Amino acid sequence: MSQVRRQLARPRPSWGWQDDAACRGEDLVLFFGPDGERQPERDVRERKAKAICGGCPVRNECLDYALSRPEKYGTWGGLNEDERASERRRRMRRAASAGISAA
Questions:
Q1: What's the pTM value of the predicted model, to 2 decimals?
Q2: Where are the domains of the chain?
């Protein structure tokens, strides 16, 4: 008999927050960028995407989703890839220090 590998079960995401997202209906290229994009164009595009995220009522839910998966590409919750990596590390350090101080 062959064995079936089981993946670690992640909780299924709730997508309801997307219905209220400020980016709903916007062009995805604004948030993910085209292939071969140069840095000056990327900076302009990301500023536009982040401006939309700035007024979004579900920004925190979006960012939490992207950090929990992790989404490797695009602007999520107002943060680009590098900013999300920094936020992920910051949250991990905070959780680790909370665990140490709680002991």
A1: 0.79
A2: 37-101
